Amino acid sequence: MKEPRTKDFRRTTFGPGHRIVLVALAEALFSEDGDVPAERMASFAADVDGFVSPASRPLRVGLVMMLRVIQLAPLFLFFSFSLFENLPVKKRVELLDRMDRSSIGFVALVLVAYRTIMTMVFYEDPHELSLLGYPGDERKVFLRFQSKKAKASALLHADEHEASEHEAGEHEASAPHTATADGSAE
Amino acid sequence: MILRGREEKKPFSAKVDVAIVGSGAGGAVVAETLAKFGLSVIVIEEGGHYTQPEYGTFRPSYTFRRMAREAGLSAALGLGDTPLISLLAGKAVGGSSILTGGVCFRIPEQFLMEWTRDLHIPRVSPEALAPMFEEVEQAISVETVPIDMRSRATELFVEGAAKMGVKMKPLRRNTTGCKGAGRCNFGCPHGAKMSVDLSYLPAAQRHGTVILSDALVDRVDVSGGVARGVRGRFLDETGEPGVRFEVRAKIVVVACGSMHTPVLLKNSGLGSQHVGRHLTLHPAVRVGALFDEAVNGWDGAMQSAFTDHYLDEGITLNGVYAPVNVLAAAFPGVGRAHKALVHQMPNLGFFGGMVHDEGGGTVRRGLGREPVITYRMAARDKTRLLRSITILGKMAFAAGAKEVFAPVFGLPTLKSVAELEALEASPPKAHKIECLAFHPLGSAKMSAREDDGVVSPTGETWSVKNLFVGDGSVLPTSIGVNSQLPIMAMALRTAKGIADDWKRYAAVAR
Q1: pLDDT at site A7
Q2: B292 - beta bridge partners?
Q3: Burial letters for A12-31: b for 16+ Cβ neighbours within 10 Å, e otherwise?
Q4: Average pLDDT over residues B15-24
Q5: Which chain A positions have a beta carbon within 8 Å of B431's beta carbon?
Q6: What is the pLDDT of residue B402?
Q7: CA B341, B62, B371 angle in degrees (round to 5)?
Q8: B372-376 and B74-79 beta bridge pairing
Q9: Regarding beta strands B172-174 and B142-144, do their DSSP bridges make them parallel or antiparallel, or are they unpaired?
């Protein structure tokens, strides 16, 4: 779909430091096998920023704090003095998986919040959608419905036509010598 | 006429008969009714104005960032054993009516009888409201969704329900010429859904109504116990308040929705203990089912079937769908596991369950402009949510699903009815349940006595004369069904009451 003139609020939420974490998170969520190009990841981080920036200040501050939690998560989940973005992708996936299954509500919430936002933005890319088998604007159900409706309407008209012809025939049979509008006999 | 606040560089003032705050389902109906009656009306909307051809081309995340409150990330914070509940509300000219699936139900008779008999509210009996429903249904083209417009995914859930002895019925929606794009709740791309920006607001404008967009009302001006108008600031292109505006009016109707109406009332000095309390949400869950065949849930009317079979248990089941990236966002797992699930999208069908809740919600003023919403779920309602998951899961398995996606964070997909029953028998903590709500109601509720609510049966607030509430916050209880049509019918009832009694209200304003 084409994008019309933008009316997005002109503000940003994530600084360069945050975007590094966002890209690392995106790699773990969507590119465990390294199949998404690096340049897409960079523009993707900007798109995520664009998505959350119209939200209120308290929510944006909350999201930034949650990102910090992810950044520091290796410390309290792996007891490792490494930031999230410095872990190898495989380790990052393992860490996020632990967060997903965590019995501590807040830890799971942080992962769910970012997975929700980032997945929504990542999979609306037309290329990703086509890889999922999404056909774009094509809608077979509507086309079938329309053709069925057209057939039903044609049948109805045919019936009406037949009925009116039949009626006319009966009329002619009963009154074969009706006068036309100009008074002449048929 | 539409004045875009973000393009206004100078302070603005106006004097009208009626100022309406909010342009959604409630505000639009009040505007059209009173403008048609011959009053001068101004509608003030915090959100921006986007035409249907514009929003029809938005990708889902763009709809959220431009037309939804908090970019679609609003939530009610759970208190006690309550999940975090994701809330969706519109913020644009047309309000949430642009972001609904278009499902139209009248308020079930059992609730109207309760309001009439137990709460003693006049003119809300089924007979009294029927003409309101009829008028609104005609104005927004409510029609039954043809069975042939069902997606294969919905057909399968209907088949599964039939095998369980549960009858599904066709839904009614406010559409004309639906092409089954399956994304009604992100703005219909074909203009087939008759949201109020395409129905009531253009009609109101034809009768002279002026709409102000990007205009945040700070408070209602009250003097001598009477509402005199509103004041606020236009939002600039950064979304921050800038140039001031003021509207003097004989009557003010607040219709910002149940999440924001209480905030405006509180900011305007209304001290009733009931303002912001009694919020009901209709907590809902969405269950996914993986089939062997491609069911292409996007191909067909987004919502086309429902069952009220479980209404006595407080549960309504509705067919649902959403754009695929939005659905994918709720899938469990990370990395390869998540990706593998997302790539099965063509084989995934979804159905939703919604609970008629007791109403443990509260709206409070927050640090910024958005309210803080808390919700304490009754144990009964949590049980109902889990029961909905079990019922929907069983329907999916009965229809031949090989796996069921229960909306529980961190839970792998379920592969049998036994696993479903085990989930219901040992329920997860509430914070693990992925819960949604689309119908916040009741935060400025109507009551027959001043001590019991915020507005009188006419819709006028008990404490300030000529100040009305015209949205879903006046509903005295949860209604267990989608709220768009009920909000519009109640708003029409309020507007007709204002018109009938206009001379008296105008005299009070003098």
Answers
A1: 43
A2: none
A3: ebbeeebbbbbbbbbbbbbb
A4: 98
A5: 105, 108-109
A6: 96
A7: 100
A8: parallel
A9: antiparallel
CA distance A65 to B461: 40
Residue-level pLDDT at A181: 36
Q: Do A124 and B323 touch (CB under 8 A)?
A: yes
CA distance A72 to chain B (A): 18
Task: List beta partners, residue B327.
Answer: none
Maximum distance among all Cα pairs of chain B, rounded to whole angstroms: 70
B129 burial level (CB within 10 Å; 0-12, 13-18, 19+): buried
CB B264 within 8 A of CB B254: yes
Choose the closest CB to A54 out of B65, B333, B338: B65
Average pLDDT for B14-36: 98
Beta strand spans in B161-224 (E) = 169-170, 172-174, 210-213, 215-223
* pLDDT exceeds cutoff 60 at B403: yes
In three state form, how does the secondary structure of B367-420 look?
CCCCCEEEEECCHHHHHHHHHHHHHHHHHHHHCCCCEEECCECCCCCECCHHHH
Residue type, B418: A
**Is residue B220 over pLDDT 90?**
yes
Mean of all residue pLDDT scores within chain B: 95
C-alpha of A78 from chain center: 35
**Residues of B with active-site annotation:** 439
What residue of B is the nearest CA neighbor of A12? Answer: B238
Chain A nearest CA to B433, separation (Å)? 11
Q: What is the pTM of this model?
A: 0.91
Bridge partners (DSSP) listed for residue B251: B18
Which uninterrupted H or E stretch holds B67?
A: helix B60-67
pLDDT reported for residue A139: 86
Q: What phi, psi does A86 have (nearest 5°)? A: -90, -10
CB-CB under 8 Å, A124 with B432: no
Closest Cβ opposite residue B342 in set A105, A121, A123: A123
- Which pair of tokens denotes residue B43? 């509608």
Considering only CB atoms, which chain A residues are within 8 Å of B339?
30, 32
Side chain identity at B74, as an amino acid letter?
A: S
- Give the CA radius of gyration of chain A: 32
CA distance B226 to chain A (A): 32
Q: Which amino acid is at A169?
A: G
User: What stretches of B87-151 show up as alpha helix (H) in DSSP?
Assistant: 109-113, 126-139
Q: What is the mean pLDDT of chain A?
A: 83
Q: Is the dihedral of CA B282, B285, B291, B296 positive or negative?
A: positive
Name residues of chain A where pLDDT drops below 50.
1-7, 174-186
Place of tokens 């609510």: B453
Answer yes or no: are the C-beta atoms of B107 and B486 closer than 8 Å.
Answer: yes
ipTM of the complex: 0.90
**What is the Cα A132 distance to its own chain's centre?**
11
Candidates B466, B458, B25; CA nearest to B252 is B466
Give the phi and the psi of residue B57 in degrees, each rounded to 5. -100, -5
Angle at B352 between CA A134 and CA B27, to 5 degrees: 95
Residue A5 is predicted with a pLDDT of 40
Are B335 and A97 in contact (CB < 8 Å)? yes
**In B114-217, alpha helices (H):** 126-139, 152-163, 200-206
Task: Render the burial of B213-249: b for 16+ CB within 10 Å, e for the rest.
Answer: bbbbbeebbbeeebbbbbbbbbbbeebebbbebebeb
B60: closest CA among B206, B220, B185?
B185
Model confidence pLDDT, tens digit, residues B54-93: 999 999 999 999 999 999 999 999 999 999 999 999 999 9
- Chain A hits for B366, Cβ within 8 Å: 56, 58
